[in-house]
Amino acid sequence: MPEIRKRRLGRTGFMVTEIGLGGIPLMRVEDFDEAARLISYALDQGINYIDTARAYGDSEEKIGLVMKDRRDEVFLATKTNAYDYDTAWQYLETSLKNLQTDHLDLWQMHDISTEQRWEEIWSAQGAMKAAHEAREQGLVRYFGVSGHNDALLLRAVECGEFDVILGVYNLGIHSLGEQVIPAAQQHDIGVAVMKPLSGGLFFRRKETFIDPMKAWYFVLQNTGISVALVGFQNQRDIDQAIQASATFTPLSEDEIEQLVAKARFLGDDVCRDCGYCKEECPAGIDIPKIMHMFDEARVFSYEWPRFRRLYAELEIKGDACQDCGKCEEKCPFDLKIRERLKWVHDRFNQPI
Q1: pLDDT digits (tens, 9 = 90+) for 96-120
Q2: Would you state the pLDDT for residue 263?
Q3: What distance in Å separates the CA atoms of residue 128 and residue 134, rounded to the nearest whole number?
Q4: Weakly modelled stretches of the chain, pLDDT under 50
Q5: How far from 294 is each of 121, 275, 310, 338, CA to CA, in Å?
Q6: What is residue 8's three-state secondary structure?
Q7: pTM, two decimal places
């Protein structure tokens, strides 16, 4: 495989490969040995940045299988979704144990997308107090923050406390490039981006298919981005991302305009398959699958026979919703999940 280009991760000074590993999809690789093989394969190709989170199921444990022997080869980042001091410390200790390391290169405050969470981490007994103590003890080198709220990510850049920010950037959602990324460059803050392929949304239907190389080129063309995270469940995902780096070709303004127009066929109100909602559902509903059905049905309404068939195949349907709202509390994009579940059930729970 060709050598992956590297970029400076802001004031950390670390030269990271512009392609990094994102840990969410690892939850879906059931076999631990296969997960470890994929991670090792990525490192063998030269990738040197790994991002995961305490909230990503068993992702940390799978990465830890490789880190126990190859820790010095990567810049290792994880996140805490505990925002108070005591729980954040507990989560940090768990992350270190799971990842089989004695320190993190980057510890990130996870999904700081609301004012409430911002205030909570900065309170007298908030997670940032734990972060500062952890850095003093050598358990954490740098601080980061992830989120889906540009205004709060901009505040994170300007407050001077964070070394790296993590946000969404792709053909469909790229507002991060308007203010946040330029500000990060000005303050010498590293920028990591997730969902470069929008969770595969661009490739699900032939009518809206976008060449994955072009989608990658759009992201890599922004020089303010330090590293783009590839979500991977198989070797093909890794190879494709590496190939995008090796063959990168700048897109013309006309190409970008056409691709952006095509990628925005559903606007911002789409499911991006993070999986948080499914983890929280007490009824066991496969919420992401129904959310995908909802998104496609809005665009391809004429496919109703297929949607009815797919819905009939679900063991647990949308009407099992207990209306607890836990899924919506977890959704980073504020989707009205309960309304969507009802919409899909009303339309597709019919004879095929």
Answers
A1: 999 999 999 999 999 998 899 999 9
A2: 81
A3: 10
A4: none
A5: 35, 16, 12, 12
A6: strand
A7: 0.82
Could you say which DSSP state residue 84 is in? B
Which residues span the domain enclosing 326?
A: 276-348
pLDDT tens column, 209-232:
889 999 999 999 999 999 999 999
Are 82 and 111 a contacting pair, CB within 8 Å?
no
Is 270 within the bounds of a domain?
A: no
DSSP symbol at 320 = G
Find where tokens 């001091």 sit: 85
Beta bridge partners of 78: 107
Domain count, the chain: 2
C-alpha 180/C-alpha 159 separation (Å) is 13
Contact 292, 273 (CB under 8 A): yes
> What is the rounded distance in angstroms from the CA atom of residue 262 to the CA atom of residue 213?
15
Say yes or no: 37 and 62 in one domain: yes
Q: Is 31 exposed, middle or buried (0-12, 13-18, 19+ CB in 10 A)?
A: exposed
Residue 27 phi/psi, 5-degree rounding, is -60, -25
